Recover the amino acids of this structure.
């Protein structure tokens, strides 16, 4: 089955810095790669996603890149703000079933 | 649309007790699933369903049962609760994919403690 590795597990940055979270996947049949943000005590919510026919997607301060050949994808957050502090999960999806990474706890210091 | 609704939000069980976590969605989604979330372990799939009458096991199915008698409902049953089942449980649903992945919508979560 699919295996998703996510790094780092914890990321601490100063407000205004950029943050990058990286994920690798094992199954070349995976074709959809969403990223979820989970604030403390809340449900995971989709923040951005990318499909396998696209290399990069941007939405304001967040962007995702996908390298299908290397089987890795990354989340980039620019100009980080304290409200970006949360746990971020990547996932690789084949058909219905997503496989999630273990999460990255992002801490943005004011 | 209410989205994905799960109940209860908090529950304390004694070892050996059984209970059912309820999950309902009003978006006519084919795919529904249950995850448990433990510190440092991410979201682990317990059971899933790709339509009414169809269920299958995920990564950590032991100790849990599911059924899918309607498109809307997907209850999770703990047969004989154990302290190892203390966790946060999320129900999720997704629209038809047409062979491609699609957005997963999560319920608000159920915090379960087994003592």
């Amino acid at each position: 089955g699919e295996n998703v590795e996510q790094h780092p597990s914890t990321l601490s940055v100063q407000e205004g810095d950029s943050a990058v979270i990286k994920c690798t996947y094992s199954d070349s049949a995976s074709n959809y790669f969403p990223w979820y943000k989970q604030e403390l005590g809340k449900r995971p919510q989709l923040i951005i996603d990318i499909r396998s026919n696209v290399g990069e997607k941007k939405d304001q301060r967040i962007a995702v890149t996908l390298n299908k050949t290397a089987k890795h994808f990354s989340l980039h957050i620019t100009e980080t703000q304290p409200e970006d502090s949360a746990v971020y999960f990547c996932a690789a999806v084949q058909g219905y079933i997503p496989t999630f990474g273990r999460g990255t706890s992002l801490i943005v210091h004011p | 649309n209410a989205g994905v609704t799960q109940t209860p939000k908090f529950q304390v069980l004694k070892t050996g007790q059984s209970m059912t976590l309820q999950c309902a969605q009003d978006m006519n989604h084919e795919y529904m699933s249950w995850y448990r979330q433990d510190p440092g372990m991410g979201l682990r799939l317990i059971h899933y369903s790709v339509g009414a009458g169809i269920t299958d096991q995920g990564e950590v199915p032991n100790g849990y049962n599911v059924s899918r008698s309607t498109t809307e409902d997907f209850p999770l049953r703990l047969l004989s609760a154990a302290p190892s089942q203390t966790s946060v449980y999320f129900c999720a649903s997704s629209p038809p994919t047409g062979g491609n992945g699609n957005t997963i919508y999560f319920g608000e979560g159920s915090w379960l403690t087994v003592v």
Q: What stands out?
A: DSSP finds no helices and eleven strands in chain B. The two ends of chain B are 36 Å apart (CA to CA). The mean pLDDT of chain B is 93.
